[in-house]
Amino acid sequence: MNAGGGRRRGAADQERVAVQRRTPPETTSSIAKSQGQPASRPRKDPCAVDCPVERAARILDGRWTTRIVRDLLPGRRRYSELLRSLSGISPKVLAERLRFLEEQGMITKTIYPEVPPRTEYTLTPGGRRLAPVIEAMAAFGNGLP
Fold first, then answer.
1. What pTM was estimated for this model as a whole?
2. pLDDT > 90? residue 53
């Protein structure tokens, strides 16, 4: 035993640990083959960039996005109506989320040249495709204790 209370490693143990530390990960399968062990197959990343769940999550990301979509499902809403209906959201965050959803093609922004200017938001056909997602979230939320 060594001073730390554990057993001392023999020379063979120390050499194996040293080899493992120096071996890059991409060569471990060739070592496994040479030792008669089956090589592990590389795993496909379930959330790669082209994953549909990842693409949807990028749009629905954020604390307020699903609530904004929920409030736009009944139809056209003015900026001030959205701001009132989403208690706790700051005007800056609402503007950022609306801009993002517009860039993603989920909503349409219409500015009327009046004094003062009136701005309204509506869901695009692509944004309307989020309705079943919001409904599923509502059903899930209703089932929570």
1. 0.65
2. no
